[in-house]
Amino acid sequence: MSSSSIPNLLSLRGRDGGRGRSRSRGRGRGGHGLGPEAAASRGQAHDLTIQGTDTDAAVSRLSAVDMGYLSDPYARYFVTSLGGPPARRFPIINRGTYTRTTAIDSLVRSFLLGHEGQGESGGAAGVTTKQIVSLGAGTDTRPFRLFGQQGRPHLIYHEIDFSVTSARKLKTVEAAPPLASILTNRSTGEASDWSSQPWNGEYFCHGLDLRQLSPTTAQSLPGLRTDVPTLILSECCLCYLSQEESEGVLGYFSSRIPNVAVIIYEPVHLGDAFSDTMVSNLAARNIHMPSLERRRVDGEQAARLKIIGLETTRYLTIDRIWSKWVGAEEKERVDSLEGLDEVEEWQLLAGHYIVVWSFRGDGFEGWRAIA
Predict the structure, then answer these.
(1) According to its UniProt entry, what is the function of this protein (predicted)?
(2) Does 167 score more than 70 pLDDT?
(3) What angle do CA 322, 327, 332 make, to 5 degrees?
(4) What is this structure's pTM?
């Protein structure tokens, strides 16, 4: 789903003309120290900037597919051809897209398959019901890839994003028969809040500002189950929130769901010259990422998740995932697609992005052996 480029790997170095932008659709705020009207205006502008990066994300995902890094038959439906053929990303961006996507796919697959066959409340006999909630989902294709496969456990899938993004996704689905045939029996409240009943589960698309969610909010999410193992997925989303807002979002789910897990993918600020340049270039694009100011080292992610009650946390930077999780034969295949001359630069760039997975309770047996 969340399958596009590692955010800004090259644009941070000023080498791709701003094409390799983040897929993230976080909910950052701006305007600290401004008057109420100016702060609101600046915050709205920042929201629009973040929403706009979804187009670049879709192009980056399609670039990786077209070059043979990934298999995703649904990627092209989210890229318009009105402006000519989609841009081909640099090899280092394509490799980042591949590594980040396959790593998260692997964690999601382990979550869905682990503990299968024991049965749970609401599932068919011998089938485990599990739930995924994707924050800032945008044009992510993961639900189509999951619901389009046979042999999956009964799956409940939620996507949350701004109303305009959710409404746009509905239009794309309705206009593309291969997408519409997967998310069948669609129903809508408003155009930005819709659902579907694919053959092997349930899908909900919520048009909602994440900042409305906290442990004390009365906000309800239609279709959200609290009695099944649930995975919260944040791919460069929570990093755009203030600390209080991001903890509130995670707390909304962890306070309601006993068996809960989180996957977070985002930049990590290691306090070196490159990360300082990262922050500066993001600011030049009117993008503020509070997480880069707060979490300067890897271990601070575990401390963050412990606050909301998650018991087991593991994490790897993207360069370590490439080294540890991608086998020799697959590395050879990926290397043969384009080649990568600047290995040291890859290690530097990929070392500033991290995948964190954390869980509490039952239903995550497939994760216990992953390191």
Answers:
(1) Methylates the carboxyl group of the C-terminal leucine residue of protein phosphatase 2A catalytic subunits to form alpha-leucine ester residues.
(2) yes
(3) 90
(4) 0.84
Q: How high is the mean pLDDT of the chain?
A: 81
pLDDT in tens, 284-299: 877 778 877 766 666 7
Range in 140-149, 171-180, 182-191, 256-265 the model is least confident about:
182-191
- With beta carbons less than 8 A apart as the criterion, state whether 343 and 261 touch: no
Bridge partners (DSSP) of residue 331 are none
Beta strand ranges found along the chain (DSSP E): 130-135, 155-161, 187-188, 194-196, 201-207, 230-235, 260-267, 312-317, 353-360
> In the prediction, which pLDDT does 44 show?
62
Q: What is the DSSP letter of 27?
A: -
Which residues sit in the known binding site?
Answer: 100, 136, 209-210, 235
Q: Give the pair of three-digit tokens for residue 262.
A: 């989180």
**Annotated binding-site residue numbers for S-adenosyl-L-methionine:** 100, 136, 209-210, 235
Contact 157, 202 (CB under 8 A): yes
Give the CA distances from residue 247 to residues 141, 153, 195, 321, in Å, rounded to whole numbers and listed in that order: 26, 30, 27, 26
Do the Cβ atoms of 127 and 119 come closer than 8 Å?
A: yes
Token output for 139: 């044009």
Highest mean pLDDT among 109-123, 144-158, 224-238, 263-277: 224-238
Query: What are the tokens at 218?
Result: 């009365």
308-365 pLDDT per residue, tens: 899 899 999 999 999 999 999 999 999 999 988 888 889 888 999 999 999 999 999 8
Distance in angstroms between the alpha carbons of the first and the last residue of the chain: 23
Taking CA atoms, 31 is separated from 35, 36, 73, 93, in Å, by 8, 9, 41, 31
Alpha-carbon distances, residue 255 vs 45, 120, 213, 301, 305 (angstroms): 32, 20, 12, 19, 13
